[in-house]
Amino acid sequence: MEALSVKNVTKRYTNHVALDNVSITIPQKSIYGLLGPNGAGKTTLIRIINQIINRDAGDITLFGEPLNESHVGVIGYLPEERGLYKKLKIGDQLLYLAQLKGMSRAQALEKSKAWLKKFQVTDWWDKKVEDLSKGMAQKVQFISTVMHEPKLIILDEPFSGFDPVNAKLITEEILALRDRGSTIIFSTHRMETVEDLCDDIALINKSKKILEGSKKQVKDQFRSNTFLVEHHGNSFSLDPSRYEIVKQRLIEGDLYGTTLKAQAGIKPNQVIRELIEKTEVSSFQEKLPSMADIFIGLVQGEDEDALRRHLQEV
Predict the structure, then answer these.
(1) 16, 58, 158, 196: which could join 9 in a potential S-S bond, CB 3.0 to 4.6 Å?
(2) pTM over 0.70
(3) pLDDT at 314 over 60
(4) What confidence tens digit (pLDDT) does each residue in 156-169 have?
(5) Per residue in 31-50, pLDDT tens?
(6) How many separate domains does the chain show?
């Protein structure tokens, strides 16, 4: 069953189309990367899902039901623009925000203290937000987003302000939330995080969805059947009707690195079998595109064929 289905959603402002007939499908219990450059329309879509603003056209269903006011309690939203009350104590703030999501005061007290203990910051209870660093305040906002155990969690640039240690801590919690049954929409510009965390992705650019699928499907779409080979000696020949030597470089001594493009349909096992008959192979790997390369190429307007050629040469 789908967690979230967005069909043909459009949002217009006076002189601007923020979303143009956008459709995405988010599987349950997955981490879904919602990607795109600044101004692409991601935040508009997130605000529509959170019912902060209304769509002009299109349909949205959440866990099989048309999106409605009752869904506020099953969504946790961490916005890019942080929204904590600077003068309010952390404990009071967590209790207040949890009760807005439908928790009783007793439940809110139990959950908020448990999360502070998990993050080893129980001494923050009586501190004010204005006394915390950006990263510390971000932890509090993350706790307020997830402690009511929402079925859908929307995280907009959740790692902003975190050092590597705390980024790792939050990463582990995101994965644990997914494993406990939550569906997570993850909006970020950090492509290395997308590589590590996301199961599926969609790319929005200039108000339109231009790509969607699992990470494997997306990478397979831009495979160029290009291989990186390290071998001893720079002289070997393969059938030029089936293979192209893209480039070659000396690594050290008689060890060379060759980038080799095979014709479509030739499998990696075939390539390695032919290579070991011609040269002494030290290492062999298929050259797969990174999410960052795909993102940059598509946002810059390259078509699929041009992007494959570019990825082959990188």
Answers:
(1) 58
(2) yes
(3) no
(4) 988 877 888 888 88
(5) 999 999 988 999 999 999 99
(6) 2
| Claim to verify: residue 203 and residue 270 sit in the same structural domain | no
Say how far apart CA 130 and CA 231 lie, in whole Å. 59
167 and 38 belong to one structural domain? yes
Asked whether residue 189 is domain-assigned, the answer is: yes
Strands of 16-27's sheet in order across: 16-27, 2-13, 57-62, 65-66
Residues 2, 141, 182, CA angle at the centre, nearest 5°?
20
Q: Looking at the predicted structure, is the pLDDT value of residue 106 above 80? A: yes
Q: Which of 25, 32, 27 is nearest to 197 (CA)?
A: 32
